[in-house]
Specification:
By secondary structure, the chain is α+β, with helices and mostly antiparallel strands. Helix content is about 50%, strand content about 15%. It contains nine helices and ten strands. InterPro entries: AIP/AIPL1/TTC9 (IPR039663), TPR-like_helical_dom_sf (IPR011990).
């Protein structure tokens, strides 16, 4: 039966397996090795007549002008075998199995160097785990006044919105009418998997230069274990190590963003949980990094203060106009403000 006969009978022809088609096939998803060594997934859009080059569209390109390129065919390589199942629409039909497999394959891609693909796969696994419909008495995380708080669903109304009982260190608050897509489902029985996916994605995002997004993932891990404790469950050693790791990595992202006080608070929280010997060494190094950062900020502030004082002296001595001195001072002030922000 040919394709036309199958079309007339409402049947779809069977697509060839991934390894049954040439690497330079239009519509095929491949991996491109760039001269820098970076690896990126792309779809083949056009094959040139001489077959020496192909036009590709990069998947998950951050900017539109970076999405298309013409590359030599020698830069192409096939996807990893474990990735192929995630090209199928039902890859997460079994949410737990799909998320577990996605974590393993994502780790392979991360070690391979394709951090974009790894982050995407971790994200798809989290979407499958965390966006399941809420039911009464299930644990969730919700954003309240800029803080991610654990809580329980007390009611789901006919429109699908949830009333939740949010718990902080000081109070319990019932918040009504929260859309379910604004909630993060807490998988108490599989929390190590859920936390690992967020930790791993944060590492990938950090390598992609997305420090703030990485910190958000780490904040989710910390809130997940707060929900675990609020549920009455006792934390084992492996659970504590994941929580400590989240505090440590978030401190590192805050150090990179010149935020010493929040970084120091995370380090203190990690010490309070009780780190292993190896992790304790990392925390001590992070403390030294904070001290170095603060000393550098003090030096920068003193240097800028001297510049302003010099400009003021020039204005007072009559060697320059007051207006010019004020203008120069105004240019220096934002620099000081930027350095002092925590």
């Amino acid at each position: 039966m040919d394709r036309e006969e199958m079309r007339q009978q409402g049947m779809r022809p069977k697509m060839p397996a991934y390894d049954e088609t040439p690497l330079c096939s239009v519509g095929k998803v491949v991996r491109v090795t760039l001269p820098s060594g970076q690896l990126r997934r792309a779809m083949v859009e056009c094959v040139e007549e001489n077959e020496d080059t192909v036009d590709v569209a990069y998947i998950d390109a951050a900017e539109k002008d970076q999405s298309d390129a013409t590359v030599p065919t020698s830069w192409l390589r096939p996807l990893e075998p474990g990735e192929l199942i995630f090209l199928e629409p039902n890859a997460f039909a079994n949410r737990l199995e799909g998320a577990t497999n996605a974590k393993e394959v994502g780790n392979v891609l991360f070690k391979l160097g394709d951090v974009e693909a790894a982050a995407d796969l971790y994200g798809r696994a989290l979407e499958a785990l965390e966006r399941a419909p809420c039911a009464r008495n299930t644990w969730i995380l919700a954003n309240r006044h800029g803080m991610l708080l654990p809580g329980k669903v007390v009611l789901v109304d006919d429109s699908g919105k949830a009333n939740v009982e949010l718990r902080s260190e000081k109070s319990v608050e019932v918040v009504r009418g929260i859309p379910q897509n604004a909630l993060i489902g807490v998988q108490l029985e599989h929390l190590l998997l859920q936390g690992s996916l967020h930790l791993n994605r944060s590492r990938a995002l950090t390598q992609m230069g997305q420090q703030q997004e990485a910190a958000q993932d780490l904040s989710v891990v910390i809130a997940l274990w707060a929900a675990y404790s609020a549920s009455g469950s006792s934390m084992q050693t492996e659970c504590k190590e994941q929580l400590i790791k989240a505090y440590y990595l978030r401190a590192k992202t805050r150090i990179s963003r010149q935020r010493p006080e929040p970084a120091r608070a995370d380090i203190r929280s990690a010490w309070a949980v009780g780190p292993s010997t190896a992790t304790a060494a990392l925390l001590r190094q992070a403390e030294r990094d904070v001290e170095i950062m603060e000393k550098e900020k003090v030096r920068s502030n003193k240097k800028l203060a001297k510049e302003i004082a010099k400009l003021a002296d020039v204005a007072m001595s009559g060697k320059g106009t007051v207006q010019r001195a004020v203008s120069d001072c105004a240019r220096c002030i934002p620099k000081i403000s930027k350095v002092q922000v925590g």
